[in-house]
Amino acid sequence: MTHEPRQLFGIFPSSGVPIYRQIMDQVAVLVASGRIEPGDFLPSVRQMAADLEVNPMTVSKAYSQLELAGTVERIRGQGMRILAPDSMQLKTSRLRELGPYLEQAVAHAYQLSLSRRDVLDVLAPLLEKLDDE
Amino acid sequence: MMRQLKTVLRSYLQRPLLWFGCALYASQMVGFLGGTGSARIQPMLLMLIAFGCGWPAATVGFHVKQQFADPRAALTPGFRGPHVVALLIVTAAFVLPLPLIAWLSGHSFVGLTATCATYYTLVFSWAVIQRGAWSALLMVAVFAPYTAGARDLFEFLANGRNDGLAAAAIAASVAVFATALRRLVRMTEDDPSYRCQFRTNMWDLNARATRKAMSDYYSTRNTEGGFWVWLAGAGLPERARYVGGSRLGRLRHWLKGWPNARGTMITAVVMLPLLLWWMRSGMEGGGRSALVGQFWVFITFPQATLLSLFQFRASSMGWESLRPLSRREYVQEMGLVGLFVTLCTWAAAITALLVVSAVSGFELVDVRTWFAFALVTGSLQIPAFAVMTRALATRRLWPAYVWLIVVSAVGMLPAFLALHKNGVSTGVRLAVALLLAGGVLLRRSYQFWCNAELG
Amino acid sequence: MNSSVPPISIRGITKCFGGTAALSDVSLDVGRGEVLGLLGKNGAGKTTLIKCALGLLRPDAGESLIGGERAPDMSPCTKARLGYVAQEPAVYPWMKVAQAIAYHGAFYENWDADFAASLLQRLELDPTKRVGALSVGQHQKLAILLSLGPRPDILLLDEPVAALDPAARRDFLKMILDIVANGKRTVLLSTHITSDVERVCSHVSILRDGRVSFTGELDALKDEVKRVRLSGLHDYSGNLRLDGVLRVEREGDSAILTVRGNIAATTDSLRRDTGATAAIEGLNLEDIFLELHHDATA
Predict the structure, then answer these.
(1) How high does pLDDT run on average in chain B?
(2) What is the pLDDT of residues A51-105, one digit of tens each?
(3) Considering the domain boundaries, does residue B167 fall inside one?
(4) Which residue of C has its CA nearest to A105?
(5) Are residues B176 and B252 both part of a single domain?
(6) Which helix (H) or strand (E) segment is C222 a member of?
(7) What is the spatial distance between Cα A24 and Cα C82, in angstroms, rounded to a whole number?
(8) Can you tell me the distance from the alpha carbon of B327 to that of B246, in angstroms, rounded to the nearest whole number?
(9) Residue B64 CA: distances (Å) to CA of B7, B9, B56, B197
(10) Cβ contact (<8 Å) for C108 and B323?
(11) Residue A15: its chain C contacts at CB < 8 A?
(12) Helix ranges restricted to H, B283-366
């Protein structure tokens, strides 16, 4: 199944994040959330560039980087196909995304002169939302 | 008020064209001084007054037009006062000196003031409005010195025969001047005259001011369907057909894109015989000497045509040179087209001369002299063209004007010789010399153009 | 045609007007398929550079190669593949739009009349109107149309959208993207609208006072210049101006720094030195442009 670029991607050319990085990040999110499934094809470079009104070279770059990262594979004559995510790899990347937020929280706690105990007390009820896995 | 007045007066000094006009005025004054020496003012002096008062009047008019036909005029507080006063001062400076000198020499002050004032007003009013009926004033001003009637009237007034009439003429001039000034001072954008401004930048033909003036010219007349604008664009194809295949095809195409080459030719063919006849009829003395006063038609006019057409072309040249042809080809082809237009204009003039000679019975020239004259003035066009194009290669207008005068002055000599030496052989020799000189100068101009900056 | 030379190659161009140098030793290349955005403040020398690149002005030093040929001596063949839109186009004001298009098109063997006609419609130009009577924006659109008619491979555009309204500008950017879609065409676009550059350009060059202060991939520039927010500095009195820090704004406990170069390394150094928390923010092109133009002494 192929998808309409506009429906899937929200690109902001004037943000601090390079466009190719935005595309890469959004592909990762789409895969993780299940909106694109392994075996689906990403829209062609031309279609992406035309629909999102960005430079095709940028899209090519994003796709190449995704290929290097192992998220997609290039099928000749057809395009870029989503690979089944290595569950271990996926988890690692997700954990990596969470990292900075936790770092910030800890740093903030340090500034507020809170102890480890205090932080865990605050954290415990919040963690109840998450699954026990 | 005084400070503003000084600033406004200083703005007049920044106009190179006005300096030129002053120089012309001064030179006419010299001639006039000579003329006032005698007991009677000669009718020929009307010519001096025409040039001396006319040119500055036009420049002042253009300058003042630009001051008032501008949003700043309406929005700046206290704008009108200093500007109008400055204008009156400058006007007095150009109108009064000649009569004063004449008065000091014992001639009629009123009579000469009447002439100067009338002349000045005619040209000034045209320069300020530049539309419709006011253009007729310019025609009157230009042609009057060649009309016997006007000259007689001038002689009549200048020698103090009827001071009452002179006073009436002054009053009339003031009234017309005031009318034009009133319209100018109140001018708003919906006045069709608002955009008629002579805005060429003398220093840089690529300047925005020149381009804007051109656009304004064609935009206003578009809505009224002016004849010259229609003529400039008439017959141009609306579908692109490749012309690069043959040199001749491309040359014709360049010519098509030269605005008003056609208009100029039609004007030349129709106007020149009339002009020559008119001038001749107003001249005393024998045919050949009378022709001397009309040399400018054969020397200056073709080159001036080139200059005026070039002005239209100048700002597009950089872009044009990027079309698919080499720089050499571009320069060659533009040069050929320019030369063609110049020679056509000259040919129209020289044919007009023959026609007028044959038809009018004014015994201008006989066929052999005409032939020699044609040879010489024709070959004169080549070096003149070379000099003018070299001057225009810098894309500054004022050197071109200066060179135009130089070329005209220098060209008088061979033309004079051709006219007054009997025999075709002199003419042939002169022509050959001119062509050789022209060849050398043309080569220099060509090389300069090939390396010129067109951006 | 030498295929190893980039289609637009500007090498060490210096140009002086009067006593001042408008351009000093400017070099940049635009490779095949690239879209380079030339950014600079007004008076930085963008127009002068483009004119020197095309051979319309003679540089005092250096040279420019278009399609592998020296610019002033470009062959008709190369010129037929070239499209140029000047900053203030001077299309013949006495012609009607249709006539101007036909006149210009007649010079090109590869003029695509159907494409020109479709552009005429797309740009909403009235073919019967006289060029002199067009508004500034329409005049610019006409100039764009004339440059695109022969389907050029190499395009140099000097502030082509300056007078266009946002809708027309967006449409023009789409046109550029269509043109470069096949990866074989090269565009050099000079503008001061950074959002256009972000959308359309793969590469960017920043011109400051006649010198190149950056040239390279747009993405690389965005990765190279970032903002770092420090919080929790307390009484840190040391120098925050490490290598690579362009600007420091300090207010008591926090500071905002602009960092260029190896962001991670510099940020780590800052963290170590100050003990404060550091958050890295990306900057968009407009911010980067302003930061790069900020005086180091301020």
Answers:
(1) 82
(2) 899 999 899 999 999 988 888 888 888 888 888 866 656 677 777 777 878 888 8
(3) yes
(4) C277
(5) no
(6) helix C218-224
(7) 35
(8) 17
(9) 14, 11, 12, 10
(10) yes
(11) 282, 284
(12) 287-292, 295-313, 317-320, 327-360
Collect all residues with Cβ–Cβ distance below 8 Å to A123 and sequence separation of at least 6: none
This model's pTM is above 0.90 = no
In sign, the C-alpha dihedral spanning B278, B35, B299, B135 is: negative
Amino acid, res. B52: G
Closest listed residue to residue B91, CA positions, set B125, B56, B62: B56
- What number is the ipTM of this complex? 0.88
Q: State the smallest CA–CA distance between residue C275 and chain A in angstroms.
A: 10
CA B129 to CA B114: how far, in whole Å?
A: 22
Judge residue A22's burial from the number of C-beta atoms within 10 Å of its C-beta, 0-12 exposed, 13-18 middle, 19 or more buried. buried
Contact C148, C103 (CB under 8 A): no
- Above 90 in pLDDT, residue B332? yes
User: Is pLDDT of B400 > 80?
Assistant: yes
- Fold assignment, C8-209: Rossmann fold (3.40.50)
Domain residues of chain C, as ranges? Answer: 8-209, 222-293
Q: Which of B247, B254, B322 to mutate to test the interface with C (most CBs of C within 10 A)?
A: B322
- Choose one of B142, B159, B185: the last residue of a domain: B185
Q: Note whether B145 and B18 are same-domain residues.
A: yes
- Judging contact as 3 or more Cβ pairs under 8 Å, the answer for C and B is yes
Q: Which helix (H) or strand (E) holds B110?
A: helix B109-129
Residue B135: its pLDDT value, please?
Answer: 78
Q: Is B431 helix (H, G, I), strand (E, B) or coil?
A: helix
DSSP string, C40-97: E-TTSSHHHHHHHHHTSS--SEEEEEETTEEGGG--HHHHHTEEEE-SS----TTSBH
* Cα–Cα distance measured from residue A116 to residue B74, given in angstroms and rounded to the nearest whole number: 75
Q: Are B315 and C91 within 8 A, CB to CB?
A: no
Which distant-in-sequence residues (6+ apart) come within 8 Å of B142 by Cβ? B50, B54
Residues of C in contact with B243 (CB under 8 A): 106-107
Six token digits for residue B122: 């005619």
Specify the fold of C222-293: Alpha-Beta Plaits (3.30.70)
**CA dist list (Å): B56 to B61, B93, B141, B184:** 8, 10, 13, 18
**CB C189 within 8 Å of CB C201:** yes
Q: Which stretches within A34-131 are classed as H helix?
A: 45-52, 56-69, 87-111, 116-127
B349's CB contacts (< 8 A; 6+ apart) are B268, B272, B276, B297, B298, B301, B302
Using alpha carbons only, give the angle B45, B51, B57 rounded to the nearest 5 degrees.
130
Q: Which of A13, A20, A21 sits opposite C195 (nearest CB)?
A: A13
B325 touches chain C (CB under 8 A): yes
B214 touching C (Cβ < 8 Å): yes
Domain count, chain B: 2
Instruction: Mention the CATH class of domain A5-82.
Output: mainly alpha
Contact criterion met (CB < 8 Å) for C226 and A111: no
Rounded average pLDDT per 10-residue block, chain C, 298 residues: 82 92 94 94 90 94 94 93 92 90 94 95 92 89 95 95 90 91 92 91 93 91 90 80 85 87 87 84 91 66
Q: Which of these, A83, A8, A12, A78, lies nearest to A45 by C-alpha position?
A: A78
Pairwise CA distance, residues B435 & B135, whole Å: 40
CA B354, distance to chain mean position in Å, is: 24
Q: Which of B133, B173, B189, B226 is nearest to B53 (CA)?
A: B173
